[in-house]
Amino acid sequence: MGKKRLPLLLALFLLLSACGGPGDPEATPTSAPTPEAAVTSQPAPAPTPEPYDGPWNPLTGEPIGEDWVNRRPVAIMLNNLKEALPQQGQSEADILYEVLAEGGITRMLGVYQSVEGVGKIGSIRSARPYYLELALGHDAVYLHAGGSEDAYAKIRQWGVDALDGVRGPYMSNSDNGNLMWRDSERRKSYSLEHTVVTSGDAVCERFAGYTGLRQEHEDGYVYEMSFVQDGTPAGGAAAQQITVPYSNYKTGLFTYDADTGRYQVEEYGKPYVDGNTGETVAVTNVIVIKTACKNTGDKYAHITVDLSSGGAGWFACGGQYIPITWTKDFPDGQLRYFDAEGEPLTFGVGNTYVNIVPLDSAVSFT
User: Which residues, if any, are the signal sequence (predicted)?
Assistant: First the structure.
């Protein structure tokens, strides 16, 4: 029995030597870790993050720097002609208002609680009285480049803190030489009226320094907006796509992206792009309200937009929509929105796009 095992052991020894066994100086010995070593090699559990308790951006419900939370926002007039696109910096606005101007075109008012870190913003166009009403509702400082005579009269009558790039000292022909300037890059391919821009840095650096305007809201000022993390309205109907006609010239389209929880915006049959980033503008909340829009009959075909009579509309978030009503005190009240039970609307955390359309606009949801 013992004689049979010896050759077997010898063969095993030779095989181990050939394969780098214990006698091979190049072999890497391996051994199982001791129980103590296995315990000490495990990573320590990650600490539980402290819950964020503010401050919050009053226009979006998102975190914001302490220095900005009580600041007066900046409201900037944005050109929306096809030939003036793309706009720049509009994707970083907390609220975008779109309203008709003369001839079926639209303009936008971008409202920014903070412009810190925002690049170029524009192109900037002229004022109309109803945009002043929207800016006043936010206690905002209003940036524009020119305006109708009625708008200039209302600026004086209503005491609007308006910084004008045409009749005021806030324009430069050199890049970044003032609060606003005619951008050299845009001047290469755009008409002169489509070249006025500002930037977040310009507003931060120059607004406080030489305008002499009040920087913060007065004591007791309270915003009417409130937010929840998921603003999908209860009992809503499907709003995967929202079509918002303004005129024969302009129709807006909002398509819900379930992966991001936001609406991708299109206009003129193309994505609505921010020229600073090349990315499509996306928003968390979509508001559509209807009101009377009437031609004044002047030679410029200016219109009036009724923002004080209230009316009906819709709110969409999370791919669902509900009917709403809206009110606004003339001229400086905030726009207020209510659900079918008359309760104040609650928004999803994030930015908001407000469409203000004529009474006969055939808005649709699919």
Answer: 1-20
Tell me what pLDDT residue 42 has: 67
- Taking the C-alpha atoms of residue 326 and residue 335, their distance in angstroms, rounded to an integer, is 7
Q: What values do phi and psi take at 11, rounded to 5?
A: -65, -40
Domain assignment present for residue 53? The answer is no
In a domain, 20, yes or no: no
- Residue 25's pLDDT band, with cuts at 50, 70 and 90, is very low
The alpha carbon of 14 is separated from its chain's Cα centroid by a whole number of angstroms, namely 75
Predicted pLDDT at 18: 39
Whole-number Å distance between alpha carbons of 181 and 172: 4
Give the C-alpha separation, 114 to 203, whole Å.
10
Distance between CA atoms of residues 141 and 159, nearest Å: 11
Distance, CA of 171 to CA of 163 (rounded, Å): 10
Q: How many C-alpha atoms does 177 have within 13 Å on its Cβ side?
A: 12
On whether residue 13 sits in a domain, the answer given is: no
Of residues 194, 201, 185, 174, the one with CA closest to residue 119: 201
Q: What is the pLDDT of residues 244-284, one digit of tens each?
A: 999 999 999 999 999 999 999 999 999 999 999 999 999 99
- H or E segment at 317? strand 311-317
Domain residues for 252? 74-365
- Picking from 224, 230, 245, the residue whose alpha carbon sits closest to that of residue 326 is 224
What residues have CB less than 8 Å from 293, skipping those under 6 apart?
100, 303, 304, 305, 306, 357, 358, 359
- Provide the CB-side half-sphere exposure for 147 (13 A, CA): 25
Question: Which run of H or E residues covers position 6?
Answer: helix 2-18
Q: Is the pLDDT of residue 76 over 70?
A: yes
Start-to-end Cα distance in the chain: 88
The answer to whether residue 39 is domain-embedded is: no
What pTM does this model have? 0.87
Indicate the number of domains in the chain: 1
Packing angle between helix 129-137 and helix 149-158, nearest 10 degrees?
A: 30
